[in-house]
Protein 1
Amino acid sequence: MIQTVSYAYNASVQGLSNIFRYDNLDDYFVVNSGHLDSHHKHNFNWRANQQKWDKLTWVGYANWPTLGQFITELEEWYWDNRDELANYIDDADDYPVLGLGWD
């Protein structure tokens, strides 16, 4: 059996910006949010590489995603944004590479 204790799953458009990140690493989040645990999601404006602080979302221990769920969410994001992504590259027949990162 494998169980994750601490994690940070980050998705980004390579060379451009973060898209979203799930983690439980921020003690600040627990202390200042009033939530019982630190499992939360960061959302970013990927076009401007800016975090949407008003969209910092508590997901909770019972709802933090598995790596597979995280990848599925990123895949859905990709298909929703695929055509616009083409505006951020030089080759019109190609698309930016999405990055996955986790600790």
Protein 2
Amino acid sequence: MRIEHVAIYVDDLEAARSFFENYFGAQANNLYHNPKKGFKSYFLSFDDGARLEIITKVDISHEKLAQDHLGFIHLAFSVGSKEKVDELTKRLQGDGYPVLSGPRTTGDGYYESCILGVEGNQIEITI
């Protein structure tokens, strides 16, 4: 068994698509639009077969959750090396995305950083 995909709601669908394409090498499918439901989405595919669905709806709630809350917390991307973690973190920070932690080696041995990405989603970058 495997997780087929994960989905997140976003306000600016095109900005979210561009973020994941630009920084994480995602490939978007064609836009799906259901005008009757005010629903639009892309499936973003990554090199290893993982997929992320980004969705927007006309009636989406804009209520923000606390940084530490129950439920899904972050998306983690493995970039292959410490150097790549450092490079991507620096690039994202230079482009205005806040670094929440790292790059660092955690107590359980992971080398990672965590940034606040598009629309406030936490993105973990690891080896």
